[in-house]
Amino acid sequence: MLGKYAVEGELGRGAMGIVYRGHDPDLDREVALKTFRKDTLDKSESAELLERFKREAKAGGRLQHPNIVSIYDYGEANDVAYIAMEIIQGQELKELFDQNQRFAPKDAVRLMGQLLDALEYAHRHGVVHRDIKPANLILMPDGTLKITDFGIARLESSTLTQAGTVLGTPTYMSPEQFMGQTVDGRSDLFSAGVILYQFLTGEKPFAGSSITTIMHKVLKEEPLKPSELNVQVPPAFDAVVKKALAKRPDDRFQSAAEFRAALMAAVETPAAAPEAETTAVNLAVPPVAAAAKQPAKLWLGLGLGGAALLAVFLLRPAAEPETPPAAAPGTAATPAPAATNAAAADEKKPPQTTPAKAHTPEKTAEKPKTAKTAQAAKSAASKKDKEKKNTSKKGVFGEDLKPSPWRKEGDLF
Predict the structure, then answer these.
(1) CA-CA distance, 130 to 112, in Å (whole number)?
(2) How far is CA 34 from the centre of its chain?
(3) What is the dihedral of CA 309, 311, 315, 316, to 10 degrees?
(4) CATH architecture for the domain at 6-86
(5) Where do the structural domains in the chain lie, given as residue ranges?
């Protein structure tokens, strides 16, 4: 028996004592009995730790929150002091981290939200935990996170500093704890930031083989951004972690509620800036339909172009050398320039021929023409020459080709 509680078995052992399973006969409920043996330390250390044990038990008794293990009673029996508290069945978060259990960002945010809600409640009631770490966070089977050991500094030589000087676990301690300064709720928020970092990356931000190495990193070094260690972490979480792990308390979140609000805002922040909207310029044409019309337009253009080129090649006569018509016996062919200048306006009238004797140099010499007259004659000759070519050229099958209205459009191709 411990006081009125019947001891039924052992639940675990710690540096300061043993935790038993007990039964409260008055309320007929199961409890956990955490004990502290005063005879395990010398008198000076024992008196100080006993006073702290008692004071923090009373402070924890004032906290009634779903994410905090409830403390029911405090008592002493012979050389043993004990705290009767809520008995819970769960797993320490430390065990999950040690098993390299990875948490999705949404699960990390959910659990961190519960932790910060509990810390906000405790801080409002004047209680600072001073040893927030995964070993003091119990994950229940239903997904509820509970904080235990409020204000109790353990004396594990490998992970805890000596009692009476600096209290806390080095990996999760704030800079002010290392320097022995006054500690308030912002120290708990620093420890919560370390746990958030571990949730997101699976790594501790300040790790080392000795307390001295860890202390140097906590006081002087900045850890890598979570998004650099885990590509699945949105970059918005980097700023939240950086503020939570600020070296100076004034640069951190000033309350757990502020920390939680920043965490929720990071969840709602999109991972990447949205691309510029382009649907406004599509004139209400669905993207798929617009993409489908492009090949149709391309083939239509190629089809019309090919048909036009084929028409040009079929209608355009092949270039053949022109041979003047044979002259009648006893006559001489009129020279080309003279015949052109003398051609009649009617294109159906046959070309004029004259006896050879009429073309003696003395009789065919023309009078000098003025510049204006020569220009007009040249223009008329060019026009008649084109008409003559149109009427005299043959098609690809030897047929006579008449002037076609498509000729001019064919020239465009």
Answers:
(1) 17
(2) 49
(3) 0
(4) 2-Layer Sandwich (3.30)
(5) 6-86, 91-268
Task: Find the distance separating the first CA and the last CA of the chain, reported in whole Å.
Answer: 112
The string over 246-257, giving b where at least 16 C-beta atoms fall within 10 Å of a residue's C-beta and e elsewhere, is: beebeebbebbe
| Selection from 254, 239, 255, 263 nearest residue 109 by Cα | 263
Tens of pLDDT, residue by residue over 87-111, are: 888 999 999 999 998 888 889 999 9
Tell me which DSSP letter residue 126 carries.
T
Q: Which of 24, 39, 117, 131 is catalytic?
A: 131
pLDDT for 173 equals 93
How many whole angstroms separate alpha carbon 42 and alpha carbon 265? 51
Strand segments (E) across 3-144: 6-13, 18-24, 29-37, 71-77, 80-86, 91-92, 137-139
Is 400 part of the annotated catalytic residue set?
no
% of the chain exceeding 70 in pLDDT:
59
Question: Residue for token digits 């500093």?
Answer: 161
Token pair recorded at residue 399: 């047929």
The residue type of 232 is Q
Angle at 33 between CA 29 and CA 39, to 5 degrees: 155
CATH topology of domain 91-268: Transferase(Phosphotransferase); domain 1 (1.10.510)
pLDDT digit string, tens, across residues 346-379: 444 444 544 444 444 444 444 444 555 666 666 6
